[in-house]
Every structure is written in structure tokens, then in C-alpha cells.
């Protein structure tokens, strides 16, 4: 496989993270048993199956879900725990906008929501700001084995030795192709360009390729994939900013070549996941980059024009191989929730084997529990889920910089990279500006 160097170094990193997480988990035990007082609002509910309980309603906030996944998992939970009703609160599809709304709500110590989905990039910030409950004592009490989860997803929710969230599903950027138009997906970005030029218009399509190029968080995930596939990095393992490199410059050039080509929609600079998904399921493109959930939409008989004509593969490679950005969502409990026990019961369900299986089968989302990839129904979602190598893709996905000031880092990158795509500055200028501005932000 072309992945080799990148995959190997990422795997070593994951092994290290795994080791550190194991140390953290055992080290945090004592501390956390003292934290009971944090949940002064705990009203003492014991949400045990089958017992007679006071009815309680919890509010679960999450971004727009275009798949039936969320409804299905809530329905299954309510059937199993009839005394807990889950009310949904829909947040914006754009993770940056959701982030800002959560910060407003949580910083005012509101108890309006109990449980919410957190993007993989938020835990450090939310933990530092004390917005959410530490989950260690629940995890220990209920005997949850965190080693059943992909180590990278556990590590992403761990900050200062404590677990602040439960991994719900993981995301890695994947490549979609139309099996009624091509047999094999392109192996490199250059092949993608060649094939897109050649194939656009076939099978009723208008475009060769769809990606996320709007100025928002998704742009960063697309950019990280280009940068890593050419061997570049934003921040290295010692927390040094290393983004100003020939690799970044080459990657941004390739990204620009694609975004300004004739085979993408003219308004690609407005494309987020939802625009990608809509154009894709209408059958408008030969290839697309999105997260695994788009497989569920592609095969949705009610919405999609391309049912059974879609496969997922790894993204095309640059000089150093193929790279997928690490995304994903976890569930957190609002520190000011008035129903922490019921909230935890829901978090446990949605991030446990039953909940994750429903989310995978109904919502096309990639589980964080590795054993679920051996489940025939999960394997039925796509051939990629059934492919053992996909676990490797997920585990070796490239994280965005882990920092309590990540939103600031992301804003800097969004602005500088967008300016390259709109032709307002060169890739060299962008790399230099990102280096200086991220260094300054991290030094504050
Ligand atoms: C997906 C990913 C998330 C990422 C977002 C960007 O939802 O799971 O981690 O930040 O896309 O748009």
C-alpha cells in the first residue's frame, strides 16, 4: 500500500498515545473519586433497567444529522430506559458555529442542555474551561473498559489525565467514487485531476470532484489531508509550529489547482459537507471527499439518485502517501446538568456497543469500538467498513493540533488558506503567515 511511511509513523505515535493513556487512566483513579462534590446538582437518580424510576427528560444537543442515525439511537435508548425521555436540540451543521453556541451556553452555566456532541477538537478547551463533567468515576463505577475503544479517540477526550468525553464515532476523510462510471479510484492527486477532467459529464454527472473548500473548519480537515499527503505538518510532536515548509507549499498548490479547476462546481468555495452531500446524492459528480456518513446518504432510497453505485476508498496520495484527517464526535455532559445520572446513562448507551452499532448501521458512522468492525451488519455498511485495512486508516488518521486555543489556530489557517484559494496570496505567503501567527497565538 502507498500509505507506508506516513502510516508507520502514525502507528508509532498511536502506540505511544495508547501507552500514555493507559498511564493516565491508572493515575487518575484516586483523584477522581474525590470529585463527587462536583455534581452537587445530582438528584440521585439511579437509571437501572427495569426498576421503577422517576420520569426524567434530558436534552441532547447535536449538529444537524441528515441520516436516520440519531433518531434511531434515541428510540432504542428510550425503549430500554422508559423513564428517561430524550429531547433533541438541533445545532448548526457547521461545527464552528455549533462551537460558538455551546461556548455561550456553557459559559453562562446554563442547565438547558444535559448531553451534547463534541467535536474531537474541543475537549482540551472545554475541559480547561470547566464546562463539562469528568467522566472517570462513572467509567470506573460501571466497569467500562476504555481499551475497547480506539486509543486515539480515547486520547482525544483525555485532558490533564482525566476523561472528559466518551468517543461516539470517529471520522476520517474518505474518497467516494461512482462504481457505474469507474472501476478503480485514482491513486494520486494527479490521477484525480486527470480522471476528473476526462470523466466529468459521464453517467449524468456535471463535475469531476467535490470537496469542502468554504472558509470554515472543514477546510482545515481538507487542507490537513493535502499537507500530510505531501509529508508536511502544522505542529510537530514537540508542539513546535512547523507549517512553513516546502511540503505545505506544495500541498497548498495542489489544493489550489483542484479548487480552481473546471471539474469542480463554480461555487466550490461555498461547499461544506452538506453541499457536497446534496450534489453527490443527486448524482452530479464522479468523485467526492467527505466523511464516512455519506455512504448512508448515498444508499438512502428516498433521497439518493445513486443507490448501489457508490464505493468508498482512501483519499488520493501526494508524494508521501495518502492521509486522512482525524475527525469524529464524542458525547459530553454539561457540568451544570440537573440530571447527571440520566445524562450518563444516555452517554453510556450511545457510546456503548448497542448505540454505536445503531449509529453505524443507520447513520453510516464509523464506530470507535474496534470489535464492532467484526459485526456482519456493520460490515454491510460498505466494503470499506468490512476491510480490515480501514481500521488502520481510522487509527492512523492525522489529528488537528491539540490545544485549548485550537479555535484560534483554526481561524488563522482558515483565513490564510482561503486567501490562497481565492488567489489573494501565494502558497508561500500563506505558509509563512500561518507559521508566524500560530506561533504568536501559542506564545500568548
Ligand atoms: C466532521 C468531523 C469533525 C470536523 C468537521 C469539519 O464533522 O467529524 O471532526 O471538525 O467534520 O467540518
Automatic annotation (TrEMBL):
Positions of region (Disordered): 27-56
Top-level taxon: Bacteria
GO BP field: maltodextrin transmembrane transport; maltose transport
Pfam families the record matches: SBP_bac_1 (PF01547)
Keywords: Signal, Transport
Protein name: ABC transporter substrate-binding protein
Signal peptide: 1-27
Molecular function GO labels: maltose binding
Stated family: Belongs to the bacterial solute-binding protein 1 family.
Comp. bias (Acidic residues): 32-55
PROSITE patterns the UniProt entry points to: PROKAR_LIPOPROTEIN
One annotated Gene Ontology cellular component of this protein: ATP-binding cassette (ABC) transporter complex, substrate-binding subunit-containing
InterPro entries according to UniProt: SBP
Source lineage: Bacteria, Bacillati, Bacillota, Bacilli, Bacillales
Transport is among the record's keywords: yes
UniProt keyword Nucleus present: no
Amino acid at each position: 500500500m502507498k500509505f507506508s511511511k506516513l502510516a508507520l509513523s502514525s502507528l508509532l505515535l498511536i502506540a505511544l498515545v495508547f501507552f500514555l493513556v493507559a498511564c493516565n487512566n491508572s493515575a487518575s483513579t484516586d483523584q477522581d473519586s474525590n470529585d463527587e462534590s462536583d455534581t452537587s446538582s445530582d438528584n440521585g437518580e439511579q437509571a437501572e433497567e427495569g426498576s421503577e424510576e422517576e420520569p426524567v427528560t434530558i436534552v441532547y444537543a447535536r449538529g444537524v444529522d441528515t441520516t436516520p442515525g440519531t433518531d434511531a439511537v434515541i428510540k432504542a435508548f428510550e425503549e430500554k430506559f422508559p423513564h428517561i425521555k430524550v429531547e433533541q436540540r438541533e445545532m448548526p451543521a457547521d461545527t464552528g458555529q455549533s462551537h460558538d453556541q455551546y461556548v455561550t451556553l456553557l459559559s453562562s452555566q446554563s442547565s438547558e442542555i444535559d448531553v451534547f456532541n463534541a467535536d474531537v477538537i474541543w475537549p482540551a478547551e472545554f475541559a480547561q474551561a470547566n464546562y463539562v463533567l469528568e467522566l472517570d468515576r462513572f467509567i470506573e463505577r460501571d466497569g467500562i473498559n476504555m481499551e475497547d475503544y480506539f486509543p486515539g479517540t480515547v486520547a482525544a477526550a483525555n485532558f490533564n489525565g482525566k476523561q472528559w468525553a466518551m468517543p461516539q464515532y470517529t471520522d476520517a476523510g474518505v474518497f467516494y467514487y461512482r462504481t457505474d462510471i469507474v472501476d478503480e479510484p485514482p491513486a494520486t492527486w494527479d490521477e484525480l485531476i486527470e480522471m476528473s477532467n476526462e470523466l466529468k459529464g459521464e453517467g449524468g454527472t456535471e463535475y469531476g470532484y467535490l470537496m469542502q473548500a468554504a472558509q470554515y473548519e472543514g477546510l482545515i480537515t481538507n487542507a490537513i489531508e493535502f499537507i500530510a499527503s505531501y509529508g508536511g505538518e502544522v505542529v510537530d510532536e514537540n508542539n513546535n509550529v512547523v507549517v512553513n515548509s516546502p511540503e505545505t507549499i506544495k500541498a497548498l498548490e495542489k489544493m489550489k489547482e483542484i479548487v480552481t479547476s473546471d471539474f469542480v462546481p463554480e461555487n466550490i468555495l461555498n461547499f461544506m459537507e452538506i453541499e457536497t452531500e446534496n450534489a453527490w446524492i443527486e448524482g452530479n459528480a464522479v468523485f467526492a471527499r467527505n466523511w464516512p456518513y455519506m455512504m448512508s446518504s448515498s444508499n438512502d432510497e428516498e433521497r439518493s439518485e445513486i443507490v448501489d453505485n457508490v464505493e468508498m476508498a482512501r483519499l488520493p496520495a501526494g508524494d508521501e502517501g495518502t492521509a486522512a484527517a482525524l475527525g469524529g464526535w464524542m458525547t459530553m455532559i454539561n457540568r451544570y446538568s440537573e440530571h447527571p445520572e440520566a445524562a450518563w446513562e444516555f452517554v453510556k448507551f450511545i457510546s456503548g456497543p448497542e448505540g454505536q452499532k445503531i449509529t453505524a448501521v443507520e447513520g453510516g458512522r464509523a464506530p470507535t469500538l474496534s470489535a464492532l468492525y467484526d459485526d456482519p451488519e456493520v460490515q454491510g455498511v460498505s466494503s470499506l467498513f468490512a476491510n480490515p485495512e480501514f481500521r488502520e486508516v481510522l487509527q492512523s488518521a492525522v489529528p488537528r493540533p491539540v490545544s485549548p486555543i485550537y479555535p484560534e489556530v483554526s481561524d488563522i489557517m482558515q483565513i490564510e488558506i482561503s486567501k490562497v484559494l481565492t488567489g489573494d496570496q501565494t502558497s508561500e505567503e500563506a505558509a509563512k503567515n500561518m507559521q508566524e501567527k500560530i506561533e504568536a497565538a501559542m506564545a500568548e
